[in-house]
Structures are given as C-alpha cells and as structure tokens.
Amino acid sequence: MGQTSLDDDDLFGEAADEMRSDVEASLADARAALPDADAIWEVEADNTLGVLNALKTALDVGDAEDHLRDAKKWYTMGERADAFEDADDLEAAIEDVEALIEDVEDAREQVGDLTATIPQLRGTLEEFEDADDGADTDADSDAGEAEA
User: Fold this and answer.
1) How high is the pLDDT of residue 144?
2) HSE-up of 96 (CA within 13 Å, CB side)?
3) In angstroms, rounded to a whole number, what is the distance separating the alpha carbons of residues 60 and 112?
C-alpha cells in the first residue's frame, strides 16, 4: 500500500508540473499574441484617418485573450487542487498580462472613438469654413456696392 501512495504522490507531482507548464505556455502565447511595440508606434498613412485606422488595426490583441483564459483556467485548477508549491509568480504574471490586454483594448477603443470623430469634425469645420467664406463674399460685395 505504501508503494501505491508513493506512486500517487509522484503522479500528482507530475500533474502539478504539467499544470504549471501549461500556465506558463499559455502566458507566453498570450504575450506573443499582443501587438508588437513597433507596430503601434510606426504607421504609414496619407492622412490622419489613415493613421488612426492603421493604429486601430495594430492595437488588436488577437488571440491573447484566449491564451490568457487558458492560463487562468489551468492556474485555477492548480490552485484549487493545491498543486503548486509557490504560485505567486504565476498569479503576478497572469495579472500583468491581463492588465496589459485591458490597456491595449482601452487604447483601441479610444482610437476607434477618434476614428469616428475625426471625419465628423472635418465635415463640421468644412461647413464652417464654407459659411465663413460665404459671409466674407457677402461683406465684400456689400462694401463694393457702398463705394459705388
């Protein structure tokens, strides 16, 4: 019977190691799926809207959320089974990746808001300029009539 419990302990240890490896691998995959820093810094476009659209595309987190979910799933299973001797590093890494994903998604939303606002603002400014040009033309024509 002693041998059976030793084998069970060995199996549990192996399973715990595999869970830790799965968490670490999922976190690595999540980090790899995040946008590259250069991709959000260096964009090429002909105008502001093009820059914003390129930036919005670059800020896509891709599969990072799915990989983070897998990491959290394996971490939760390991924690509940008390399989990890020291899981503080895993918990901190999960929190770091989760915060980074949230930051990227927040930035993407803000860029999306600007992408929707800039064309509208441009149209409003053009209308204002056209109205102002029309008022200047009317004032010039009124001044010309007054001189005649």
Assistant:
1) 56
2) 11
3) 11
